[in-house]
Each structure stands twice: as structure tokens, then as C-alpha cells.
Amino acid sequence: MIWGTALVLMGIAVMYRIPQVMPRIMQIESLAAIKGFVYFCFYFLAVALIYGGGRKLFENYKVFLKKG
């Protein structure tokens, strides 16, 4: 349960930080050329974290209901 919650919270934190961090990342010349790909990677990471954590929470919830 704790691991799933941590994954979901980290995914939300990544989504929150992307707009704040991207201007500094775009100052790197080699990454400025592939701006769209960098955005995609960060948002994909955030969605993967949220999905993985949510799935883990859901599976643990189902196990909890069966035991109850």
C-alpha cells in the first residue's frame, strides 16, 4: 500500500514540477532542439508512475477485500 501511494504521489509531483523545470532544461542547447520529445518523456514518466502506483493500490485493495 505504501509503495503504491508513493508512486502515485511521485507521479503527481513530476507533473507539478515539469512546467517549473522545463525553462532551465531548454537552456541546454542540445535539448532545446528536441523540446517536444523532452516534454513527452517527462509526461510519460509521470503517467507511468501514476498508473503503476494506482494499479498497485487497486491490487492491494482487492486482496484486502478478499481477506476481510
Could you give a quick summary of the protein structure above?
The protein has helices spanning 2-26, 29-32, 35-67. The chain is mostly helical and 68 residues long. The chain has one domain (2-67).
Descriptors for this entry?
mainly alpha; 91% helix; 68 residues
Task: Please tell me about this protein's structure.
The chain is mostly helical and 68 residues long. The protein has one domain (2-67). Helices cover 91% and strands 0% of the residues. It is built from three helices and no strands. It has helices at 2-26, 29-32, 35-67. α1 (2-26) packs antiparallel against α3 (35-67). It is elongated, with a radius of gyration of 16 Å. The protein starts with a helix and ends with a helix. The mean pLDDT is 92.
Please give the structural blueprint:
Layout: H1 2-26, H2 29-32, H3 35-67
β-strand percent reads: under 5%
Number of domains: 1
> For the terminal residues, how far apart are their CA atoms?
16 Å
Biggest sheet details: none
Query: Topology as H/E string?
Result: HHH
| Average of the residue pLDDT scores | 92
Helix content: over 70%
